[in-house]
Amino acid sequence: MSYVLPPPAPATVPVAGGGEFPVHRIYCVGRNYADHAVEMGFSGREPPFFFMKPADAVLPVAEGQTGQMAYPPLTANLHHEIELVVAIGRGGAGIKAADAAGHIWGYAVGLDMTRRDLQNEMKKQGRPWSIGKGFDQSAPIGPLVPIQRSGELLEGAITLTVNGAVKQKGDLAELIWSVNETIEQLSAAWTLQPGDLIFTGTPSGVGAVVRGDVMEGAIAGLGSLEVAVR
Ligand code: MN
Predict the structure, then answer these.
(1) Residues 140, 69: contact at Cβ < 8 Å?
(2) Distance 199 CA to ligand 1 centre (A)
(3) pLDDT at 39
(4) What is the Rg, in whole angstroms, of the alpha carbon atoms belonging to the chain?
């Protein structure tokens, strides 16, 4: 193969205990906790919907490190959304929920950072969300924990603090569409590939951060993710 430009290095996420997970695609689920759906003006009983971020929107944060996120341009309302991230190890199309766990490589704590003002403007105009959701460094993510180590994560606290104050607090058991159901729905629309990441949705309490703020997300069984906004 003779490339006419040097091909970009794959985006990667560190693995707890060593190694790097190459990222293929980043899928995100919208409004997947009832209390967050309600805070965004919906009932919490709508079917799941999906959007994507570019693979290189990841901001990988190694164990024990603090991620450094540059405050992005064009926004005055940068929101945090703490989310369980599922990493796909075995691809497939038409995966049934009952078989989904066998496709999971591992889990991580992630932040679906959102330029809320731009997203709201796009919503109002019925336009795509990309500018609000898919910007550079919009997907900070901590080390991936292999499912062999964590076991299947079906419940457990998911929390986010900003400068030490609790802003978001939920439980994985409150997901409207479980991880396995999400994999079924996603794989009906796209052929999942090894290296895909799925941001599974955020509990209520989303809000703005400014330069100088430090966010710390945590999920029971996965440890924490610390990101400073610069
Ligand atoms: Mn989200």
Answers:
(1) yes
(2) 7
(3) 83
(4) 17
